[in-house]
Structures are given as structure tokens and as C-alpha cells.
Design goal:
Length: 228
């Protein structure tokens, strides 16, 4: 099997080399680009399996690069992991809503970066999700057809909205969902609801799940994810 290809778009030479070194060591085929424009050109040329994208780039920034990648039918399916400085929460939210798959904050551990890259690449190879399939994860069983949740053998009674939120998150462990992605996922786009409404639903859901409620992790300033 040919090695998976990763494009690193990073203008800081030392960081780009650190990422390249660690990816090379794990057997990935790595290309680099030092600007947003060069990153777009390389993505079109190389058709990578994954893009690691710095947000703070000279010229075209990473958010615009992400937007263009997702808007182009030739590159739209390439997963993107954003690499951001701490404190750029608004940019992370925007990037996720543009279609990025995950993010890593600087300064980062190479091991964490590799783990995130592997997880995203693994998801890319998975079969499309079946909305009607039973989800089994961390001792929780979610039965969409019966609208039933069982945790460690005990049935949990949830409202329709709580059930949809749990189902959405648990189907993709490790994926970060913004609050508005959660709203879109459970109600459809343009549903008039606030961030606070999602937070209230999650608090109630965690309480009903008891100890299992800890599996729903808060990503400060961004949203939620189900523990991988």
C-alpha cells in the first residue's frame, strides 16, 4: 500500500521541519508549503490525504485557504487539521464551520499532532455513517429506530433533542462540533436557537447520563465532542 500523503502548510521553517521530521518517521509522504497560495497549488497538484494548515500565514490566511479547499470540488474531500495559536477560539469556530475536521493548538506536542492526524486519516477510510445503525461506544448503546439509550445495561430516558445531540456526538468520537454545527445537525440549518440553548441541553444530557456524562467533553469557547 502506498504511504499516505500529508501536506503541511506552515510559514515558520522550524515548525514545518519539526512536523515533517515526525511525519517522515511514521512513514508518511510529506509535502510542505510556506504560504496559503502555495498550499492551494500543492493541494491541487498532489491530492494529499490530509492537510495540516496553519491559520496565521503571510498573504492569504489559513481560514481563506480552508474555505477555498472546501469550495473546490477537486479538493473538498481532503480533510483539514488546523494548527492555531492559543487564544484564536473565534478562528477555530470559523474553521470548523468552514469544514475543517480538527485543530491543534501551538505550542503542540508532536505526539498529539500525530495522534490527531492518524485519527482524521482513519475516519477518512471509514464507511459512510448509517443514521439508522445502532451506536455502541464506551458502554453506551444508542438505538435510533427505537429512540432508546442504554448505559451499562440501564435505560436512559432522554428528550428528542437530548437524544439527537447524543447520537450526533457519539457517532463521531473525537470530532469537535461547534454549537451551531450541533444545531444544524439536529434541527437543520437556519433553526432559530442560541449557543446558550445548546449548553442547557448538554447540561441536562450529562445529568441524565450520570458518570457517562463525562464522555461529553466541553471544548472551551468552541463546542463539544464525545470522548474518543
Amino acid at each position: 500500500m502506498a504511504p499516505e500523503t500529508i501536506l503541511v502548510v506552515e510559514d515558520e521553517e522550524d515548525i514545518a521541519e519539526l512536523i515533517r521530521f515526525n511525519l517522515d518517521r511514521e512513514g508518511y509522504r510529506v509535502f510542505t508549503a510556506a504560504s496559503g497560495e502555495a498550499g492551494l497549488a500543492e493541494a491541487a497538484r498532489q491530492d494529499p490525504d490530509l492537510v495540516l494548515l496553519d491559520l496565521m500565514l503571510p498573504g492569504m490566511n489559513g481560514l481563506e485557504v480552508c474555505r477555498r479547499l472546501k469550495a473546490d470540488s477537486g479538493t473538498a474531500k481532503i480533510p483539514v487539521v488546523m494548527v492555531t495559536a492559543r487564544g484564536e477560539e473565534a478562528d477555530v469556530v470559523t474553521g470548523l464551520e468552514l469544514g475543517a475536521d480538527d485543530y491543534v493548538t501551538k505550542p503542540f506536542s508532536p505526539r498529539v499532532l500525530l495522534a490527531r492526524a492518524r485519527a482524521v486519516l482513519r475516519r477518512r477510510m471509514e464507511q459512510p455513517l448509517d443514521d439508522s445503525a445502532v451506536v455502541r461506544v464506551h458502554g453506551i448503546e444508542i438505538h435510533p429506530g427505537r429512540h432508546e439509550v442504554v448505559a451499562d445495561g440501564a435505560r436512559i430516558d432522554l428528550t428528542a433533542t437530548e437524544f439527537k445531540i447524543l447520537h450526533l456526538l457519539a457517532r463521531k468520537p473525537g470530532w469537535v462540533f461547534t454549537r451551531y454545527q450541533i444545531v444544524d445537525g439536529i434541527r437543520g440549518p437556519n433553526y432559530p436557537v442560541t449557543d446558550r440553548s445548546v449548553d442547557v441541553q448538554v447540561v441536562a444530557l450529562r445529568k441524565k447520563l450520570g458518570e457517562k456524562g463525562k464522555l461529553i467533553e466541553t471544548i472551551r469557547g468552541i463546542g463539544y465532542r464525545f470522548k474518543e
